[in-house]
Write a structure and sequence with these properties.
- The protein is mainly beta and 123 residues long.
- Helices cover 0% and strands 47% of the residues.
- Strands 2, 4, 5, 6, 9, 10 and 11 form a 7-stranded mixed beta sheet that branches. A 4-stranded antiparallel beta sheet has the order 1-3-8-7, with no helix packed on it.
- Strand 4 (33-39) and strand 5 (46-52) form a beta hairpin.
- It is globular.
């Protein structure tokens, strides 16, 4: 049973920083894609960032490019999201996602595994 667990959410003022962490269990081997999505109340789930473990390639949504950084954790299939210069529009529930294949943040259906989410509030 695959399980992704996020941590590190919270409340910060505009311009502040947070680092989200995601740990994975129940997975044999290394997942190909690790990513982060977010969903604000009343909005659709939005892809934020993704990393391919095969080559380290990263990709960011335009809305966070230059402010957020996705990176691998020390544990296998662990992933971080460093969020700097946070804005009120970044307020959302943030979800960790993973896939055995090369997935896209433009299509949530390409991701196989999801965490339960962690709340980020920027005021």
């Amino acid at each position: 049973h695959v399980q992704l667990v996020e941590s590190g959410g919270g409340s910060v003022h505009s311009g502040g920083s947070l680092r989200l962490s995601c740990s994975a269990s129940g997975i044999a081997g290394t997942l190909t894609s690790l990513g982060w999505f977010r969903q604000a109340p009343g909005d659709e789930r939005e892809g934020v960032a993704r990393l391919y473990t095969t080559d380290g390639d990263t990709y960011y949504a335009d809305s966070v490019n230059g402010r957020f950084t996705i990176s691998r954790g020390t544990a296998e299939n662990a992933v971080y999201l460093q969020m700097n210069n946070l804005r009120p529009e970044d307020t959302a529930v943030y979800y960790c996602a993973a896939s055995d294949l090369r997935a896209s943040i433009h299509s949530a259906s390409t991701w196989s595994y999801w965490g339960q989410g962690t709340q980020v509030t920027v005021s």
